[in-house]
Amino acid sequence: MAKKAPRRTAERILESSLALFNRFGEPNVSTTAIAADLHISAGNLYYHYPAKDEIVNALFARYDEALSGLLHAGADVQDVEDAWFFMHTLFELIWQYRFFYRDLNNLLSCNRRLEEQFPVLLQAKTAAMHDLLQALRRRGALQMEPADAMQPTATSMVVVLTYWLSFEYVRAPRQALEPESAQAALLHGARHVLGLLMPYLEPTQRAHLARLVGAYDQAT
Amino acid sequence: MAKKAPRRTAERILESSLALFNRFGEPNVSTTAIAADLHISAGNLYYHYPAKDEIVNALFARYDEALSGLLHAGADVQDVEDAWFFMHTLFELIWQYRFFYRDLNNLLSCNRRLEEQFPVLLQAKTAAMHDLLQALRRRGALQMEPADAMQPTATSMVVVLTYWLSFEYVRAPRQALEPESAQAALLHGARHVLGLLMPYLEPTQRAHLARLVGAYDQAT
Asked: In this structure, are residues A106 and B103 in contact, taking their beta carbons and an 8 Å threshold?
């Protein structure tokens, strides 16, 4: 049997770490546990990642890249159907990397790179929400005065988007972040972020969003 | 000099712990550090609180009691001026116990009592926001269809209320939870929670809230 290339091992370490961090929380997963999960030696793991923070940082780099790619789509949203799809895709990506959100402040206080990069990421999210609002407004779907409501609404959307999974976790610590809760958590989250726009929507669009939300209410 | 009564020491331990937890985060403060801060022996501290979790639980009991007393006032709100004052008072209390919000999920995963009690507290907050919306609606200040918007709006208000300080912390980890940032953090928080009601307010009330918010924007 051919020996596995180092590149492949580094990749497997990231995949296994992500699964374990998501399942148990990053502070509760040691590098020893990751090595054991992969049936490799601690030495082999350290050869690729000399410290757990380097695994966390490598995962953050991937998340950040995927998120940046996605956030650009905020400006292309044409109606509430697009916005609904956009929000779901965003929540799906957050769900894939949910360990960041489960222990965010703890991670920030222990990891200098995250402390620097997460504020930048929140700014990018806020800018994307702002773009989404402007795009909907330009198409006549949204009736919102930019001077009064756009910036605080974009900020509140980011707070709900960022902390929705934490909120679900507090409500049900033992179930909320398990895979079988994914679908409900993502739908609840998207529904609440877009719910903030409901009163500002042009009537046809509002009815359309209510139908999308209604279909979800029946499904959960 | 008279020897201090045990009751007084127990009280001082709670006060010192609260200050240290707020300043450095609960996971970063040991019972040894608390004893050192008070110039008492570790033995004396253990006599009053045999484990750090018991200090955390005693502080939670105080917070829970103060919060429950306050939340009842949600139903008595008559206009946006009352709502603004209510939200400030709520944020001031959250600020006093901000360490819970800084490391909430971490605390929940390590402390069984908090894991049980925090969901109850979130429910009480959601019920209070719902009461506040109903009170404003009864007075004609709010134009909101209960069937469509009241429950999700109350829930989103609780998410913004609960995670506002975490959000400020991510944006500026080294400044956000320091005492000199209190005033700005509380005003920003109250402004964003009540901002969610803006589009639903009766026009005179909306103008009144905009004036209150405007006075704040100039002050920060």
From this structure: yes
